[in-house]
Amino acid sequence: MKQDRRTFLKASVGGIVGLSAFPLLAASAPAVTLGDRIRVMPGLPGNVVVLKGADGLVLVDSGSAEHAPALMKSLAGERVRTLINTHYHADQTGGNALFGKAGAEIRAHAITKQWLAADYWSPSQDRWIKAPPKEAVPTVSFRDHGAMTSGSEHIDYGYLLEAHTRGDAYVYFRDSNVLAVGDVASPLRDPVHDWFAGGWIGGRVDAMDELLKLANADTRIVPAYGAVMTRAQLQAERDLMSKLFDKTSQLTAKGHSAKDMLDAGALKDVDRTFQDPYRFLYDVAKGLQAHYTNFAGNVV
Ligand SMILES: [Zn+2]
């Protein structure tokens, strides 16, 4: 899967040619091409990955309901054969209904399918979220991993246990060496732990270790939000989260709340600026409390 510099340059040139063939969204952020058949569409509001296969398109995530019509328009009538969701959040699955109704097969982890198939209570929004139309619900689900091909591209996807939700998945385009990781990597926004859905910081570190095993130095890693990452950047984010796991799990084991952690300087001495430090720590603390027996058994 390794690319030498010459192959990479060739791929980059192919990317520029590809760019003109793919109409851009009205949004200011342009699509990014990765090789000759994959592009990343940003601003939907997050990233959507589009693979141009011989038998139609493969999408990773479908954007929000608000942005999905613009996404569909940008595909210029090309059929979406398969859509793979990285998790259930509305900014990744809001376009499912639109593409599902147009005939796309939707794949996701079994728990993501469950979240999408029924109404659920959102504590962060303090309201019930209605289930989407049945066409938005994945028809192919998996517990551990799965695979498919599109033209000559081999695509693997698999479960990332309890990282950001309890139904996170990666999608690895093996031949293009592009790895879509959803919100399990978060270089732009504060990392979010949807503790109500089973995500927690310990799961995030483990999931990032899984991703690092899949990637090599040339892998282009696509997070849900933000620029395409290298393996080294993913490693740096993983190490930071691991350091924070050590700090916050020890404080939780001692009975400290998120406010106590903030006051104790839990986010000091880490090379990252948090937009909302208390909100980040609140979700970390709730996740740690929910998984207390996974880390605090011999600490107290
Ligand atoms: Zn998310």
Spell out the blueprint of helices and strands.
Elements: H1 5-21, E1 32-34, E2 38-41, E3 48-53, E4 56-60, H2 68-74, E5 80-84, H3 90-93, H4 96-101, E6 105-109, H5 110-117, E7 120-122, E8 127-129, E9 140-142, E10 145-150, E11 153-160, E12 168-173, E13 178-182, H6 201-214, E14 220-223, H7 231-253, H8 258-263, H9 277-290, H10 292-295
Parallel strand pairs: 4-5, 5-6, 6-9, 13-14
Antiparallel strand pairs: 1-2, 2-3, 3-4, 7-8, 10-11, 11-12, 12-13
This protein binds zinc ion (ZN).
Description:
The chain is an alpha/beta fold and 300 residues long. The protein has one domain: Ribonuclease Z/Hydroxyacylglutathione hydrolase-like (Metallo-beta-lactamase, Chain A, 4-Layer Sandwich), CATH 3.60.15.10. It is built from ten helices and 14 strands. Strands 1-2-3-4-5-6-9 form a seven-stranded mixed beta sheet. Strands 10-11-12-13-14 form a five-stranded mixed beta sheet. The N terminus is likely disordered. Zinc ion binds next to loops.
Relative helix content? 25-40%
- Low-pLDDT stretches are 1-27
**In CATH, what is the homologous superfamily?**
Ribonuclease Z/Hydroxyacylglutathione hydrolase-like
Shape: globular
Number of domains: 1
Spatial order of strands in the largest sheet = 1-2-3-4-5-6-9
Give the helix/strand class.
Answer: alpha/beta
CATH class: Alpha Beta
Distance between the termini: 46 Å
Bound molecules: zinc ion
Beta-strand content bin: 15-25%
Number of helices: 10
Average predicted confidence as pLDDT: 90
Question: What are the secondary-structure elements, in order, as H or E?
Answer: HEEEEHEHHEHEEEEEEEHEHHHH
| CATH topology type | Metallo-beta-lactamase, Chain A
Report Rg: 19 Å
How many beta strands in the DSSP annotation?
14
Described by strand count, sense and barrel closure, the largest sheet is: 7 strands, mixed
